[in-house]
Design goal:
With about 230 residues, the chain is mainly β. It has helices spanning about 1-10, 105-110, and strands spanning about 15-30, 35-50, 55-65, 80-95, 115-130, 145-160, 170-180, 200-220. Strand 1 (about 15-30) and strand 2 form a beta hairpin.
Length: about 230
């Protein structure tokens, strides 16, 4: 009887906790004309509210840069390099939480697409060209070091890897993240809009790949997470 009960739950169970790490390819969208691309890294802690709604705390380390003395790189000769760190809290809603995929192999594939958002804080450490190469008396205003509130918009797909008990044991995430930073810290420039084009929120985007390992207390979901083997 115990064996029958355990088998009846096969495919419904999942671990509540997880941890992971990843890498991303990123570039900024600030008031500087030319933006460079860089590779950064993250680590994260995961709480699975259910198998299709992970809530995560993430730490990022990355670099944003752009501009240069050539007018083609920036018409005012501005140039910056931002070696930043960020802590972000976000949740991703996977389609499996909201659709009935039990009788469709197509929906069983689609169920792992997700969209999500959250909030965080980005600590900017900038090296900035403060004086204009074309007007030596002008000093570009702004701060080399700052902390900005930021909001990420996330979309992607999670590949779940199951163990011998049909429980999700690992996951590989492929995603796109576009983050909005509320302040002028990403590039370190706070130029007055009366003199310079400065009318958009600082942003940066990331193309991401991540790996998660699940562990901890095992609980049951109300839908089959994976078909029986």
């Amino acid at each position: 009887m115990l064996a029958t009960a355990a088998r009846a739950q096969s495919g419904y169970n999942y671990p509540e906790w997880g941890a992971g790490a990843g890498a991303f390819y990123e570039r900024g969208y600030t008031n500087i004309t030319q933006q460079n691309s860089h590779i950064g890294f993250n680590i994260n802690a995961v709480y699975n509210y259910n198998p299709y709604l992970p809530i995560e705390a993430e730490i990022q380390v990355g670099q944003l840069s752009g501009g240069g003395r050539d007018p083609k790189l920036d018409p005012y000769g501005r140039q910056y390099t931002n070696n930043y760190k960020a802590i972000i809290f976000h949740a991703d809603f996977q389609l499996g939480a909201g659709i009935d995929y039990s009788d469709s192999w197509i929906l069983n594939i689609v169920k792992n697409f997700y969209a999500g958002s959250g909030f965080g804080f980005i600590s900017n450490t900038n090296k900035v060209q403060r004086t204009s190469p074309y007007q030596a008396s002008y000093v570009f205003p702004g701060k080399d070091n700052s902390i900005d509130l930021m909001v990420p918009i996330r979309v992607g797909y999670e590949f779940k890897i199951f163990n011998d008990y049909n429980e999700p044991a690992f996951a590989v995430d492929l995603g796109y993240v576009h983050s909005f930073a509320f302040g002028e810290g990403l590039d370190g420039y706070d130029d007055p809009s009366s003199k310079f084009k400065n009318n958009a929120i600082d942003q940066y985007r990331q193309i991401t790949i991540g790996f998660k390992f699940f562990f901890g207390n095992v609980v049951s979901y109300n839908k089959l997470i994976t078909p029986f083997r």
